């Protein structure tokens, strides 16, 4: 009975985002549509990557998911409950299960607290490890888990390098035994060799503790490396969502293709021979996004229909969602042909 | 500014010898004097840049690559010091003994610089067009209106749409990519022979990065400008540089042509760097190569090889003595005890397993 229940629970998404919109009023007339109608699901134990250029709304989206912002409209559900209407005990439980790793390890740790205070604060709030010895042991264990040791516990943040600080940030997130962690550009501020250390750490922690990640970054290679599925965002909307391997093998949306081709590859022969799609211009302002498809004014394949209405995110092949008329046209034509045959 | 002398760059350029490498750096040592002691940022490095060549200097933060760039521009200020015995020759002339007048001509005139953070490097209180004009007015005999016209043309040439309008705007009105383009326009305004680009795309998105790198490449191909690119990203270098210098702890650990560094790297640090970056064509969640520990403290640099305490193949000799360069071809050399004739066979065999090439994925 219990195993049946378990398998049913495994299929149920842990986080479900539906038609999420987050607008910010910046002046009397202007509104920034940071996130504009985004939907996705995150399964337990999975890593969903969120990529896009700066200003595309990926961080805002992540912050809505963990309840840091109250969305303009749309819902975020965690274990079937609406995140933004949680109260009291449930809210506290949610705050314990959902943790965040921030981008800047210099700004997100209090310089006046020691490492043990930083890591222990969450435990105190949630009344975990109330016994003094247990608390100390747990902090040592956490530090050990992220590759630091017990002696570091009484030091202050300024005594650590960027990579070590990021590890402390990870230890803090792990302290309250979370189930779901939102990683907001956790490696962007670090050096190449340190990036690899932190990425390896995140992957091994996930394997050991069965964590679920929402991994936000602008580095497509790193996102592809860490994630099971990847969503590509542009100007507040999801353009393409697919299995990370599938996305790399068969990118469909013109924006994904351009983004992919802009990533430098550390191989001179590939670099010399590959065709690069260089996008003209820059990302338009989210205050005044172009009508219809948000990418149309930079897209080489823009058609008339693209100017009129935004294409919906549709499943083109199993598990591969694209918001582009160009990719959906083929399916429509096939459907029309099938109908004719009838 | 009007009282300033306006030397003609053309005349001085003709007087200089035209053969040999454009820039020659020999035994450069730079130290910073701090309360904790003398930080030896750059420790005896030598390299050259040929005419029309793109040289990439690659390394992690704190390895001395930016300090090297600043030394070439003679921008080291107290508490920094270029140590005695260092030699920087530009076009046959000694940069470190330039007079004030010569230095003014050299900086911004013959040698342009693109900084990493364009918002910090541009003057926020000055219109972008005027900043470019300033450079032109100092280094050439242009009149105000000619300089304004040239500045507008330059803004257009670096791909800024609507240059007449943008000429009148302030840096804060520009986007990140646009600011970097304005910086490039400023650096190339006086047709320099050498442009030093210090992490020009680190703060930018990949799509904008691709645009900027195309622009720099075009600059080299059309005007034959030499470029020194400073970066930590092997990807950017792969499609761009002719030669690569790998720096670690203030020293050059390996240098060679692009093909030599990517397809036949010889230093464990280069292997580690090549293996640390995830690539799109690799398997998901594959374990990335990491480098244990942290770079050494340059106040008291280690006696032996600076990479020894982080190296998987460290031998006793590595801790005792700094290795010399081993040449592999006329352009390729590396500084590692592995290439010493006395290196034991079993270490070499182990080293072969560690070797990473740019072309192939890591075997796990």
Task: Provide a descriptive summary of the structure in words.
The complex is a heterodimer of chains A (about 350) and B (about 375). Chain A is built from 13 helices and 12 strands. An 8-stranded mixed β-sheet of chain A has the order 6-7-8-3-9-10-12-11, sandwiched between helices. A 4-stranded antiparallel β-sheet of chain A has the order 2-1-4-5. The model of chain A is unreliable at about 1-10 (pLDDT under 50). By secondary structure, chain A is an alpha/beta fold. In chain A, helix 4 packs parallel to helix 6 (about 160-175) and helix 5 crosses helix 6. Chain B is an alpha/beta fold. In chain B, a hairpin with a 2-residue loop joins strand 5 and strand 6. In chain B, helix 6 (about 145-155) crosses helix 8. Chain B is globular. The longest helix of chain B has 18 residues, at about 205-225. Chain B has an 8-stranded mixed β-sheet with strand order 7-8-9-3-10-11-13-12. In chain B, strands 1, 2, 4, 5 and 6 form a 5-stranded antiparallel β-sheet that branches. Chains A and B meet through helix 7, helix 8, helix 9, helix 10 and helix 11 of A and helix 8, helix 9, helix 10, helix 11 and helix 12 of B.
Largest chain interface and its two residue counts? A-B, 46 and 51 residues
Strand order of the largest sheet of chain B: 7-8-9-3-10-11-13-12
- One letter per element, helices H and strands E, the order of chain A comes to HEEEHEEHEHHHEHEHEEHHHHEEH
Number of domains of chain B: 2
Shape of chain B: globular
Report the total helices of chain B: 14
The N- to C-terminal Cα distance of chain A equals 46 Å
Instruction: Point out poorly predicted stretches of chain B.
Output: 1-16, 359-364
Q: Work out the helix count of chain A.
A: 13
Sheet bearing the most strands of chain B, described? 8 strands, mixed
- Strand order of the biggest β-sheet of chain A: 6-7-8-3-9-10-12-11
Q: Quick check: average pLDDT of chain B?
A: 86
Strand content of chain B: 15-25%
Low-pLDDT parts of chain A are 1-8
What is the CATH H-level superfamily of the largest domain in chain B? P-loop containing nucleotide triphosphate hydrolases
- The CATH architecture term of the largest domain in chain B is 3-Layer(aba) Sandwich
């Amino acid at each position: 009975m219990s195993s049946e229940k378990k398998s049913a629970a495994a299929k149920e998404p842990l986080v479900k985002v539906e038609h999420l919109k987050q607008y910010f009023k910046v002046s009397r007339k202007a509104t920034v549509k940071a996130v504009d109608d985004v939907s996705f699901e995150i399964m337990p134990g999975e890593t969903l990557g969120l990529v896009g250029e700066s200003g595309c709304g990926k961080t805002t989206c992540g912050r809505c998911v963990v309840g840091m912002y109250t969305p303009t409209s749309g819902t975020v559900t965690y274990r079937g409950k609406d995140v933004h209407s949680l109260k009291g005990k449930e809210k506290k439980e949610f705050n314990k299960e959902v943790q965040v790793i921030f981008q800047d390890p210099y700004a997100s740790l209090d310089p006046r607290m020691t490492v043990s205070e930083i890591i222990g604060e969450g435990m105190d709030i949630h009344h975990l490890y109330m016994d003094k010895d247990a608390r100390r042991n747990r902090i040592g264990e956490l530090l050990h888990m992220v590759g630091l040791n017990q002696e570091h516990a009484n030091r202050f943040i300024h005594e650590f390098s960027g990579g070590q600080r990021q590890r402390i940030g990870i230890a803090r997130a792990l302290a309250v035994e979370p189930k779901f962690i939102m990683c907001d550009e956790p490696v962007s501020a670090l050096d190449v060799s340190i990036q690899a250390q932190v990425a390896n750490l995140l992957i091994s922690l996930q394997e050991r503790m069965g964590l679920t990640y929402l991994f936000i970054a602008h580095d497509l290679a790193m996102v592809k490396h860490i994630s099971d599925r990847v969503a590509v965002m542009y100007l507040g909307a999801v353009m393409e969502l697919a299995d990370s391997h599938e996305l790399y093998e068969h990118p469909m949306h013109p924006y994904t293709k351009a983004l992919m081709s802009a990533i430098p590859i550390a191989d001179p022969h590939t670099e010399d021979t590959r065709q690069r799609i260089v996008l003209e211009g820059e990302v338009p302002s989210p205050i005044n996004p172009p009508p219809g498809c948000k990418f149309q004014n930079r897209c080489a394949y823009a058609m008339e229909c693209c100017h009129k209405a935004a294409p919906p995110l549709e499943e083109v092949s199993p598990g591969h969602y694209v918001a582009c008329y160009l990719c959906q046209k083929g399916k429509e034509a096939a459907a029309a042909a099938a109908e004719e045959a009838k | 500014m009007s009282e300033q002398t306006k030397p003609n760059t053309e005349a001085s350029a003709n007087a200089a010898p035209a053969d040999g490498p454009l820039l020659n750096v020999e035994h450069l040592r730079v130290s910073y004097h701090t309360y904790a002691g003398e930080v030896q940022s750059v420790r005896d490095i030598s390299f050259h840049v040929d005419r029309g060549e793109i040289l990439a200097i690659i390394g992690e933060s704190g390895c001395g690559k930016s300090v090297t760039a600043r030394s070439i521009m003679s921008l080291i200020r107290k508490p920094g010091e270029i140590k005695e015995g260092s030699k920087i020759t530009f076009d046959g002339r000694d940069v470190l003994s330039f007079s004030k007048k010569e230095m003014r001509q050299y900086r911004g005139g013959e040698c342009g610089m693109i900084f990493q953070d364009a918002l910090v490097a541009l003057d926020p209180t000055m219109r972008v067009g005027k900043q470019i004009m300033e450079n032109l007015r100092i280094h050439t005999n242009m009149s105000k209106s000619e300089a304004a016209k040239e500045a507008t043309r330059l803004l257009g040439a670096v791909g800024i749409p609507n240059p007449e309008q943008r000429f009148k705007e302030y840096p804060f009105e520009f986007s990140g990519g646009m600011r970097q383009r304005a910086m490039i326009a400023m650096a190339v305004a006086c047709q320099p022979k050498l442009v030093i680009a210090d992490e020009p795309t680190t703060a930018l998105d990949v799509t904008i990065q691709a645009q900027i790198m195309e622009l720099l490449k075009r600059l080299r191909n059309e005007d034959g400008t030499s470029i020194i690119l400073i970066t930590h990203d092997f990807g950017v270098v792969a499609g761009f540089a002719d030669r690569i210098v790998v720096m670690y702890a203030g020293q050059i650990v390996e240098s060679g042509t692009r093909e030599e560094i990517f397809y036949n790297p010889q230093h464990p640090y280069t292997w580690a760097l090549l293996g640390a970056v995830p690539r799109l064509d690799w398997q998901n969640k594959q374990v990335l190569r990491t480098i244990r520990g942290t770079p050494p403290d340059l106040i008291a640099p280690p006696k032996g090889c600076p990479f020894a305490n982080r190296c998987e193949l460290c031998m006793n000799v590595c801790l005792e003595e700094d290795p010399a360069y081993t040449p592999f071809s006329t352009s390729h050399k590396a500084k590692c005890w592995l290439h010493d004739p006395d290196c034991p066979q079993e270490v070499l065999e182990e080293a072969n397993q560690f070797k990473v090439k740019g072309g192939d994925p890591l075997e796990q």
